[in-house]
Structures are given as C-alpha cells and as structure tokens.
Amino acid sequence: MQGKDSDLRRATLNRLLFPGPTADFLKSQESFGNLDQIDTVDYLYGLEQGVEHVITLSKGVQLFVGLEAIGSPDAKGLRTVMATLNGQLRPINVRDRKIAIDTVQAEKADPANLGHVAAPFSGVVTLQTVEGAQVEIGQPVATIEAMKMEATITASAAGIVSRLAVSKTQSVEAGDLILSIKPA
Question: InterPro entries attached here (predicted)?
Fold first, then answer.
C-alpha cells in the first residue's frame, strides 16, 4: 500500500479505531512539527547532556545537536538551555511546565482586531488616555520606553477607548494588549 490513497485510508482507520491517541498525535504534530527523524530514545527520554546527537533530515542532510547545560528557572518559569546546533552554541529559553509560577500571564492583542492596541516591543508603557476617551486614528494613546529609547504608541482605529488592559505605568512584553478601542 503506497501513495496518497493508502495514506488517506491509514489516517481514516487510525482516526476511527484510535480516536484518542490519533487526536493526541495530531495535536503534537501541530505543536512541534514532524518529529519522525528524531531517534526514539532521544524523543522518549530527552537529550543526554554532553552527547552529540545526529538527526538525519534527508539523504546527505544531517543536524548535529547537543545539550550543553540547563539553567535555573527565572521568576517567569523560563529556563535557559544551552545547546549546540551544528557546532554553534545557542541559548534557548524554554518554559518549565513543572514549576508553579505566581505571575499572571498578560493578555495578548489580537492582530486581526483593529481595535486592539498592542505593545510593539518589550518595555515600560505609560498611558496617555483614559477609558471612555474619544480617539482618532494615529492619535497618541501611550508611550513605551526600553533601553533609553522612547516611542509613541498610536490608536489603530477611531472610536472610544473601551478598556485599559494595563495600569497607568506598567512593564509589558511585545504583543501585550495595552487598550481596546470600540469603533464609533
């Protein structure tokens, strides 16, 4: 059984006979991509520190991956993992899901919603408007400061400020919702 028809039949049978595991598998593939090139031992038990692992992507194409060190978690539950990829040392920030963190995750702006005003980069936001205020497109509604650089955040739509998602002055990450504008 080769070809697209057999793949479709196999996928349908898996979905009908094993709905739970198939749903888990598809969710895993959506989150992490295709992992079939990773060794079973590496996938199930993780990378061994100080050992170089070879991942063959296709004939003649290989990745050399190694785990060098795992840092302590920070206040947000992120660990810095030092790994080598083809001989280059790379720091990677990874959320440790085993650690309970007390910080509240900030609400993210919806890029498809023109009424959402988002932080363009990480920094400290200072609001220049109040809830219920009438704003026009391009009108300054806040400023953001990071590393001695200050930028003006402007309204992305005309309307009334329906909700402030941050306090008067607050630290934010890129993409965090600052305020919502209800179109007039």
Answer: Biotin_BS (IPR001882), Biotin_lipoyl (IPR000089), Carboxylase_cons_dom (IPR003379), PCB-like (IPR055268), Single_hybrid_motif (IPR011053)
